[in-house]
């Protein structure tokens, strides 16, 4: 398979670094169909996004991966900032980049795939961008709900203490920068050393370490550092508030039956209108689907093949 082509485009004031995967030689002719692939929170384009992009390119699609603003090889300070409005703009700008490739891409055949937090971001983008003709997610989550609820688990509800704690951390970080004039190094969101997690540890973060802390997903530009003033940007954000606006464009949300995040896909699909599908892969957790494409890969090829026809 040929190496992807480096790509660069603007998303507001941020310069986004991407890679365009062309259809593999001998793959089906998709008549210029293309898919934007957006990475998880704290991730970079070379991880799970590239796995899915390669799967799509083998099936004849163009696939564009990119680093979110403030992350990876993209510009923006402070490094690691998680800004939902910027993330949504990144995705829309990625669509614009594909539209600009007039000799290869059919602007009427552009879909979007979001993984983890980007499952939420691509949903928000599609709700207000009609150029996105088909939307799929893998292990989707909403960073706003995570912040307000104090975690990813479905039994958690909006928690005033979690909200206050997040906003207090953001305020203290902002005040420290304002008084010192120094941008401090952001804290690490979770320890990625699998040896430090036991069977009694939080299952979600244990799964994260099993991916990001091993050869499965380790990458030098993936620092897992998130500045605390990301949280006052996330606390009022809701990925799926206007999910019904995606219709009549098709929606597919894929999740593992054992994923702590499964409830996000179920709720988001319930809030959407037809055509829609939540596709549950038995026995898989949130992070299994980052690099095990045995079922999710062909399902996405089938979905985009049908709806970007």
UniProtKB/TrEMBL annotation:
PANTHER family: SUPERFAMILY HYDROLASE, PUTATIVE (AFU_ORTHOLOGUE AFUA_2G16580)-RELATED. It comes from Clonostachys byssicola. It holds the Pfam family Abhydrolase_6. InterPro entries: AB_hydrolase_1, AB_hydrolase_fold, Polyketide_trans_af380. Belongs to the polyketide transferase af380 family. Gene3D superfamilies: 1.10.10.800, alpha/beta hydrolase. Residues 55-290 form the AB hydrolase-1 domain. Transmembrane segments: none annotated. This is AB hydrolase-1 domain-containing protein.
């Amino acid at each position: 398979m040929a190496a992807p082509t480096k790509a660069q485009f603007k998303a507001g004031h941020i310069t986004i670094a991407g890679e365009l995967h062309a259809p593999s030689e001998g793959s089906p002719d998709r008549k210029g169909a293309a898919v934007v692939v957006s990475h998880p929170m704290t991730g970079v384009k070379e991880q799970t996004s590239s796995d899915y992009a390669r799967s799509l390119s083998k099936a004849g699609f163009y696939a564009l991966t990119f680093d979110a603003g403030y992350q990876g090889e993209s510009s923006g300070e402070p490094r690691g900032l998680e800004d939902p409005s910027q993330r949504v703009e990144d995705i829309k700008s990625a669509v614009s980049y594909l539209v600009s490739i007039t000799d290869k891409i059919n602007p009427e055949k552009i879909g979007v795939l979001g993984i983890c937090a980007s499952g939420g971001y691509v949903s928000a983008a599609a709700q207000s961008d009609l150029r996105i003709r088909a939307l799929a997610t893998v292990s989707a989550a909403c960073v706003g709900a995570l912040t307000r609820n104090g975690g990813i688990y479905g039994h958690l509800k909006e928690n005033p203490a979690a909200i206050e704690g997040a906003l207090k951390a953001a305020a203290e970080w902002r005040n420290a920068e304002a008084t010192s004039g120094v941008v401090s190094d952001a804290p690490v969101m979770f320890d990625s050393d699998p040896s430090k997690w036991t069977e009694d540890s939080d299952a979600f973060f244990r799964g994260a370490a099993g991916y990001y802390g091993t050869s499965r997903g380790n990458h030098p530009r993936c620092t897992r550092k998130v500045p605390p003033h990301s949280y006052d940007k996330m606390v009022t954000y809701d990925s799926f508030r206007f999910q019904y606006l995606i219709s009549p464009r098709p929606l597919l949300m894929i999740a593992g039956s054992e994923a702590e995040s499964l409830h996000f896909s179920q709720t988001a699909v319930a809030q959407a209108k037809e055509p829609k599908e939540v596709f549950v892969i038995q026995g898989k957790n949130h992070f299994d689907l980052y690099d095990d494409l045995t079922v999710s890969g062909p399902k996405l090829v089938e979905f985009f093949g049908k709806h970007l026809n």
